[in-house]
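Predict the 3D structure for this chain.
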Amino acid sequence: MKTTYNAITLRYLHDVVTGEFANIGVVLYSPEQRFLEARFTTSYERLNAIFLKIDHLHYRALMRYLANRFDEMAADIRDGLHVPPVTALGEMVRQVLPPDDSSLQWSEPNGGFTEDATQMLDELFKRLVERYVAGAEQVSRTDEEIAKPFKARLGRSAAKLAEKKIETKDYQYDFRFAWKNEIWHLYEPVSFDLVDPGSIREKANKWLGRGVALNDAREKFKIHFLLGEPRHNEAKKAFENALHLLSKIPGHKQLVREKELEHFAEHVAEEIGSHDFSEMVLRDKRKGDKEGMWQQGAVAHRVEQRADDEFGPGIFAADTAHVPASVCFR
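Done. Predicted structure below.
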């Protein structure tokens, strides 16, 4: 049976005077189906294809914040006794991102009827967001959709995951899901469930370049790629090419296929659950204490050397009480 829905797009307003903008997300609400979901493009390269270079770190962090807030609201609607009417969507999105004079602006709501709210959101996202951006990946599933079952299977252990920035002299990248024992474990969802086989190869090639750029980072890490496989037979060959490209990434890595994801998540949850995070904090504190002691010793050595230069060798060893205060406080 068809039910009512309302949808609102999120726009990146590049120029207030000309009104030039690009749609970067869609929020759809269907109260009868107890459905609320927001979908945003997390690929800042899509905006770079239209406008000047933007702050990609800030953009990605903001999109993650918005997605998490809407996930919380969606959970309340699924489980709550009170379900707001379909006309309340405008107020709901303004609670998450209040209107102001920034570059991000909500559109006016538009509605209709649908039997499947998820499918309608897919159609709207492709029509309103992806088709207008040159070179956009035509996705069947996003990276975020690949991450959701992994996080769900982790259970409470998911709360132990945090963002981690890996940096080199020339490049840096923020991994969304990470934790550390002896090395950093970085979990990166990568959807290859794309319509265009060429986009599958390009996405893998981009990760190959990124892996090479991060290989000389000072911190030790291992990337666990959570792979979303294409569901279209014509894309299977391109996916095999993508696997071969990812295997060329230097350093420690793991390619986790979808059929292995459930078992892999359970294994990760066990590892996190058995890890003593307090011991890691204590170890880091001890390391910091040692570094502090070394720094204090270096300062003391410089003071002693200065005293020897000004007042003759051995003055500290002979009688430190008679060292002029000016030696220590100049």
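Residues 46 and 133 are 6 Å apart (CA to CA).
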